[in-house]
Design a protein that fits this description.
InterPro entries: Ig-like_fold, VWF_A, vWFA_dom_sf. 28% of the residues lie in helices and 31% in strands. It has 15 helices and 28 strands. The strands form six sheets. Strands 1, 2, 3, 12, 13, 14 and 17 form a seven-stranded antiparallel sheet that branches. A seven-stranded mixed sheet has the order 6-7-5-4-8-9-10, with helices on both faces. The N and C termini lie far apart (129 Å).
């Protein structure tokens, strides 16, 4: 093998060991593809995790045709300037290279007022007569501005409405919407990659149906609002042609209640709230505001925001929060590449969170790099508790003793880990040569453990072309500190045990048994025997202090014991047995026989 090859192999081996030897400490920020835990704040009862989801909005290529269908009834006159300004701002957002805008104003005018009406006489207006020849004759009037890319021309229409007092009387909403649809389709050129938004802006309940027939609201709610001849029918026509729609309604609540009566007003309001959200292309594009709850500035700004929402590439972000985590209310925000929070236009100013699913439609977000930031809370992660089991110990002077082996302490933590091998002796005062009571203190500290806490089960980013970027489950990696505990036990050292005196006891088979000489604690002899022969009160034998060869005394005491009921299996003092009587008889016969031979002897 040549030197060059040897050097290459050596370098590979060294590099391998270096890589294998790299230590990867646990961190508190987890990452999973395109979302990650940015920070974690530890509190007394919970941990708050800030999650970031990087997103990129690309330059849009989709074209927008914006059709503004504007209510020109005189009741809207005092509020119109604020709405007009915001709609002009929305038109400024359009791209002259991609977008076009058309404006259709609608109202009705009494025939008796038509000649003096600036709107009726405007060159851009068209009229449809109703109730012709009758005292209540009227005109439905449409102010039409064609579909165009010139933003200034479109904005001029709103300026003219204010400057020239281009207002009427009635509100034939369904008629105005349906006529705007017809007018747009007359001008529309089929373009690739294009969408159309009909933005309907009105300030009250209608009084004319889709055909332009004037109706009394208190008697004709279904005809004015319903799916056959009402507003719902006009919006259904928009949807059936593949276009988007939004319905923006501003109400002077007190005036409407006065004009319609409160029961009629409530009935109209409930009907709209139930059916109009589904009539628009998205429930989020229906908003119904009143001067009791909102300002006209709120309404005008939201109207503009609807346009901005449709001007950028569609983007939907979803994050399924784990069931053990909780979304922190109002924590979601959009941060741009410079770290500055970005305001999102209505209606998507904040995400929807239902059943722990966070969904945020970010169509209105302009092109650029951002990240979604939101917080979830998880219960406090507590360290596992540790416990040492050990019992007090009794021993005798100079017995062998080891603080671990003699007591055998056991340590476990609350999640089932055996920590016995990690037990340390903190204190040991035992003196085996001296009687007394001593202390031993044990301690154990479980090692740090790494674990993962699930935060996000899954996520996804859905783009305008329905392509989806999947965000994998997101866990929070954390290190749990070791748990520490101590345990103190006592060790009692007794004086050296004394040996109990030997006692010869006559057994049934004429043998003798010497009690065990197992050492017992140094108690008085009476106690020793009482412990040894508890049933038969052998302490009475010891009362005579064991004079030399006084066994007969001991046996005489035992004979008293024999008279008591007993069992052959009793572990107490041995009895003389049931054979004692025949032994005595045999001795008697022997004596009589000897005496008889003595007498017979000459």
């Amino acid at each position: 093998m040549n030197n060059k090859l040897i050097k290459i192999i050596s370098a590979v081996i060294v590099l391998t060991f270096l890589v294998m030897g790299v230590s990867h400490p646990l961190t508190f920020a987890a990452e999973s593809n395109t979302h990650y835990v940015h920070t974690t704040a530890v509190h007394d009862t919970e941990d708050i995790h800030t999650i970031h989801v990087p997103i990129t909005k690309t330059e849009r290529t989709e074209k927008l045709d914006l059709v503004i269908v504007q209510d020109l009834s005189r009741s809207f006159k005092s509020q119109f300037p604020e709405v007009s300004n915001r709609l002009q701002e929305a038109i400024d957002l359009l791209s002259p290279l991609l977008d076009r805008v058309s404006i259709v104003g609608f109202t009705s005018i009494k025939s008796s007022e038509a000649e003096a009406s600036s709107l009726f006489n405007d060159a851009r207006s068209v009229h449809q007569v109703g109730n012709k020849g009758r005292p209540d004759e009227y005109y439905n009037v449409l102010l039409k501005a064609p579909l165009q890319s010139d933003k200034n021309e479109a904005k001029q229409v709103f300026k003219d409405i204010e400057a020239n007092d281009l207002y009427g009387n009635g509100t034939p909403t369904a008629f105005g919407v349906n006529e705007a649809l017809k007018y747009y389709m007359e001008q529309q050129q089929t373009l690739n990659n294009q969408k159309t938004l009909f933005l309907v802006v009105t300030d009250g309940f209608p009084n004319g149906d889709i055909n332009g027939n004037a109706l009394i609201p208190s008697r004709s709610m279904i005809q004015l609002l319903g799916p056959d001849t009402g507003i719902l029918k006009a919006f259904d026509n928009i949807k059936n042609n593949g276009f988007h729609s939004s319905f923006a309604m501003w109400q002077d609540e007190a005036s409407l209640k006065k004009d319609l009566t409160e029961p009629v007003y409530t009935t109209f309001q409930n009907y709209l709230e139930e059916y109009m959200p589904q009539a628009t292309s998205s429930e989020d594009f229906y908003f119904n505001m009143t001067n009791q709850k909102n300002t006209i500035e709120d309404f005008a700004r939201t109207t503009k925001d609807i346009v901005q929402t449709h001007l950028n590439q569609e983007l939907l972000a979803r994050e399924k929060i784990n069931d053990d985590a909780t979304y922190v209310e109002d924590s979601a925000q959009i941060i741009d590449a410079n770290g500055i929070q970005v305001s999102i236009p209505a209606p998507y100013t904040k995400p929807d969170v239902n059943d722990n699913m966070l969904s945020w439609q970010l169509d209105a977000l302009p092109p650029g790099k951002y990240h979604i930031s939101f917080q979830v809370a998880t219960p406090k992660v507590d360290a596992a508790e540790t416990q040492i089991e050990a019992s007090d110990h009794v021993m005798y002077v100079n017995d062998s003793f080891h603080p671990i082996d003699s007591i055998s302490p056991i340590a476990m933590d609350s999640i089932g880990n055996n920590l016995t091998s990690q037990i340390k002796v903190l204190e040991n005062t035992v003196d085996v040569a001296t009687p007394g009571v001593y202390n031993i203190t044990y301690a154990v500290n479980s090692s740090e453990t790494a674990d993962k806490l699930p935060l996000i089960d899954f996520g996804e980013l859905v783009f305008h072309d329905n392509s989806t970027q999947t965000l994998h489950p997101l866990d929070y990696a954390y290190t749990e500190n070791g748990a520490y505990t101590e345990k103190k036990v006592t060790v009692t050292v007794l004086e050296k045990a004394v040996q109990a005196p030997e006692i010869d006891v006559l057994l049934p088979d004429n043998t003798q048994k010497t009690p065990s000489t197992t050492p017992t604690p140094s108690y008085p002899p009476e106690k020793i025997i009482a412990n040894k022969f508890p049933t038969y009160a052998a302490e009475k034998i010891i009362a005579n202090k064991f004079p030399a060869y006084a066994a007969e005394k001991a046996i005489s005491n035992v004979s008293t014991i024999q008279s008591a009921p007993h069992s052959r299996n009793s572990p107490s003092l041995p009895l003389l047995g049931d054979n004692a009587n025949w032994l005595v008889g045999l001795l008697g016969i022997a004596l009589l026989t000897g005496l008889w031979f003595k007498i017979r002897k000459p």
